[in-house]
Structures are given as structure tokens and as C-alpha cells.
Amino acid sequence: MEVGLCTPCNIQICEVTCDSFRIMWDMTPEDTAKATHFFIDLSRKDNRDPNRFKHRDVPTKLVAKAVPLPMAVRGHWFLSPRTDYCVAVQTAVRQADGDYLVSEWSQVVEFCTGDYAIEHLQQLQDKAKGSAGRLLKFSVFYRNQHPEYFNHVRSECGGWMLPALKDNSGSHGSPVSGKLHGVFFSCNTEFDTGLPPKDSPYGPLRFQIPAGHLLNHNTSLYFADFYCMYTAYHYVVLVLAPVGSEGDNFCRTRLPMLDLASNLFLTYTAPQRPGEEPLFCHASDVILEVLFTEPVHLDQGTVDQISGHQLMSLTTANAKKDPSCKVCNISVGR
Q1: Mean pLDDT per 10-residue run, the chain (334 residues)?
Q2: Between vectors from CA 251 to CA 157 and to CA 314, what angle results, nearest 5°?
Q3: Which Gene3D superfamilies does the protein's record reference (predicted)?
Q4: Considering 98, 113, 128, which residue would you say is the last residue of a domain?
Q5: I need a labelling partner for 34 at 20 to 30 A (CA). Which of 15, 229, 295, 301 fits?
Q6: Residue range of the domain that includes 108
Q7: CB environment 226-243: b (16+ within 10 A), e (fewer)
Q8: H/E element holding 26?
Q9: How many Cα neighbours within 13 Å face the side chain of 252?
């Protein structure tokens, strides 16, 4: 009679990325020698319906031939970035009649997948390049908010707009979401006027600041995200961080850096001759969301009423990315 397999123990997860991980566990020498397959029960932590089949002789979701441990588990079709998972394993021996002799299930271990790596963001950046239109000149960054916001800034913050934690809008795997602090600005202009749009989804008051205050030769520029919200138009998230700042140090190892003078999204060209002004350009056909990582004082610009309307339906606060869009998704997760 075939001797049973011991229950796998001491489950360890290592080398976790946004769409892969390695798993290993302790096995007896006897089990290591005779195991032919491993069964992996993988499920999202927020959906604890067991993936395990009720019958011990039927393999679970992931079936792999026995390999030396640690074993790599990868695949964007079932792993998503920044997601909590539960995993358990069985070892098995396939018998001559096709049935399996299996161990008991191991203990359940929890882990969380990681953010997009720089190479994934570069893939996303390549996608964004395909949507970016011609470069248009602009002269100011602007930020729309409600009167209550600016009253708070003046009364409680000494006139400083303080960096806030980036929300979870956009791609689920973006390294800046929920981790990087900043103040969001826009810079898109209208084709016919070259000025900021008259309408806004964020509030009836608009703070405007000369572009050179935020974007200059002492600024680092990074690509952070590309997404849509079930709409035809797309958003590109960029980060502006003063060189050597905490925000710059955070982004340097996590985000693709862009050349200030030659990229398809947002450019700064220094004056070529004495007396000339710098040139600032933004991409058309996409909506730029620019995150500046340092405090900005209201005295550096002006606050005025917008001339148009507040558009409640267009806000991107905590907006979820359309996972089915072929324009702005990459294969390593949503």
C-alpha cells in the first residue's frame, strides 16, 4: 500500500512582484523524491470562497509538475498588483491509473503583490505616447478647488497648499498611489485661446501660478500613470519634484524619468539668449495631471473665479481605471 504524503509546512513567499512570486515549503526527503505534482490554491483575500475542490483526487486551480523549490508562480491572468492573496499547497503523486495520491492542505499564508516596476511603467509610457497629440504652448499651471479649500489654506496653513497623499485613482499598480504626497495641478489649454479651460470639475475657484515656478532646470520630471475612466479621453499622470527633494528621491528608483526638453508630454526649454523667456509646452489629446511634491504658497500666484461652470461628472477622485481598455492597459495587471 502506498505510504501517504506529509502535509507541507513552513510555507514561505519570496521575490514578490506585481504579477509573480516564488513559493517554497518544507518536505521530507521521501516526499521530495516521489512527489510528481504540486497543487496551488490561490485566492484573493477579500474573496475567501475556497478554490479547493472537494475531492482529494482532483487537482486545484494551479497544477504544476514538481520542480526544485522555490517554485515560481507568475501570470497576469490571475495576479493583480497591490492585491492581498491567500495561498495553500498540496503535494501529490500521480499514479498509474491517473489518480493522485495527495497530502493534506498546508496552512494558508497571506501575502500582497507589489507595485508596477519601472519596466512596467515604461510599457505604460509607450502606450501613452501613442495617445499624446502635438505639443501646445502654455504659461501657467492651475488648480481648481472650492472656496472652503482656499479658506482653510489661508486660515490653517499660513497660505501654503500642502502636499496630500495621492489617492487610488488610475492604474492599480502605480507606485505613487497611496504613497507619494503632492499638490495636483493642471496645465491643459483650449485650442482656440491657448488659455486654461473655462470649466472645471474640481471647483469654481482657480489658483494660477507661472509655469516657471514649478517647472524649471532645477525640477525632475517623471511619468507615473496612464489611464481612462470608461471614456474616450485618457489621463497622463506626471510628477514634478525639485532636484534632490524627498519627492525626487522617492521617484528616482520607482518611476521613469523624462527629459525636460524632449518628451511627448510636458516640456521646458530654457532661454537660448539673454532676455528670452523659457518655453513651456503640454501634450494635446490627453489630460495631464501634474503632481508637484512640495508645498506651494498662494502668494506665488492668483486665485480667481472661473468664467465657466463646474462639471461635477468629470472629477477623477479615486476613479477606477477601465480594465478592458486596450489603449491604456498593459499585460501585467490593471
Answers
A1: 82 94 94 93 71 40 88 78 92 90 94 94 96 96 96 97 95 94 96 85 92 97 94 93 98 97 97 90 96 98 83 61 89 64
A2: 65
A3: Immunoglobulins
A4: 113
A5: 15
A6: 9-113
A7: bbbbeeeebbbbbbbbbe
A8: strand 20-26
A9: 11
